[in-house]
Amino acid sequence: MAHYWPSTQKNYMIKQIETMNIQRIIPILFAFFLSNLGFTQSVEWIAKTKYDAISPFHEGVAAVSVSGKWGYINQQGKEIVKPEYEKVYDFNEGMGVISTSDSQLKAIVNSGGIIPVSFGLKVDPRFAQFSDGLLLVTDGKKWGYLNKSGGLQIKCDYSVAYPFSEGLAAI
Predict the structure, then answer these.
(1) Which of 16, 91, 120, 138 could form a Cys-Cys staple with 59, CB 3.0–4.6 A?
(2) Which residue from 103, 94, 111 is spatially nearest to 136, judged by alpha carbons?
(3) What is the DSSP annotation of the chain?
(4) What is the pLDDT along the chain (171 residues), one digit of tens a residue?
């Protein structure tokens, strides 16, 4: 037998759901889902989260946001980089990339911490990940490649360039 709610009660429920802060509800619903699968430790961490947003984990690291600023955490919830940057990109090859909102490269990140980059380079948001150990960067006119130590491996001498793949890059 079906149960029908009176329309006034139904409208009240819909209005209550619409006014709730969805960003706060999603971690709780996710925690409930995980608890039904037996992941109680993850549930406790997710339910008590202090982040406004958490990206999916890549290589054991996730980007997190607090008040519009971004950083990184590991799978245990420990902050690798405090959320104080405008943009961060997913980890790839053990490295993360930090930039400003206009794609100005600020730093790269590895398991040891932050490596500042001060060449005045920018990243293309479509390719802001390391590939074959190199990160595609631009000086605003030409393209080159940064290595995992933060040094310019290949100078910005190319009008067009794409990320490396299997030891090769289109230039």
Answers:
(1) 91
(2) 103
(3) ------HHHHHHHHHHHHHS-HHHHHHHHHHHHHHHHT-HHHHHHHHT---SEEPPPBTTEEEEEETTEEEEEETTS-EEEEEEESEEEEEETTEEEEE-TT-BEEEEEETTEEEE--S--B--GGG-S-BTTEEEEE-SSSEEEEETTSSEEEEEEESS----BTTB---
(4) 444 444 444 444 444 545 445 555 566 566 556 556 655 445 345 534 688 999 999 999 999 999 999 999 998 889 999 999 999 999 999 999 999 999 999 999 998 889 999 889 999 999 999 999 999 999 999 999 999 999 999 999 999 999 999 999 898
